[in-house]
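For the sake of transparency, this paper describes our internal protein records without simplification. The remainder of this section carries one protein's record, kept here as part of the documentation:
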Amino acid sequence: MNAIQGNSVNLKYLVEKYRLLSPLERIVQFYRDFRQEDVLVTSSFGTSSAILLHQIAQVNPTQNIHYIDTTYLFKETHDYKDQLSKLLNLNTITITPEQWKNDFTSKDKTYLNDPDLCCSVNKVEPLNEVKKDFKVWVSGLMAFQTPFRKNLDVFEKSGNIIKFYPLIDVQPYFARGYFTKYNLPKHPLLEKGYASVGCTHCTEKGENRSGRWMNVSEKTECGLHYRKPD
């Protein structure tokens, strides 16, 4: 079955259908309802990324995983990406920003005076180019992580793409226990006090996502999933 008929999809039906399923059951059902060629999966290879990656690897091991390398990521994140890709036999595709724009943000230190612009140039724009080729975007967002994510549902429409969050309603204990249950490696920076890991210049130690953009008022998202209202 293909849940997308032309440009039409019944989001209310999908939400009701998937809401009572477990995360793994959702992913199994998802690949029954959607064609793989329509599906974009992204991962930051952050501290909770292994959960979604492990489940997708079980259900659909041929699924490509897109990884945005802003050029500002921790070496530990790159190493973790390599470790998980090998362990789970993932086909990881790296996305990079336009070099001249990335060079500008480096020389200008845009991340200090305009972090939203830096995120836009190095994360949002590169992914927007990739998104044009897909109809559904799968991400591992969890509602407990930020106030914005608390309001998300299993499916939502965002512009021309449908977004699927199979882990959106899991609780912190589920996330913690999953690594133990399946003996998955943790991000190297987690034990050093980094509960959430992004770019080096915008990440400090802290619980949940409190260490992200610590010196920037109200910023909790890079812009991939959320943009400030106009």
In short: The mean pLDDT is 87. Strands lie at 39-41, 64-68, 91-95, 136-138, 155-158, 161-164.
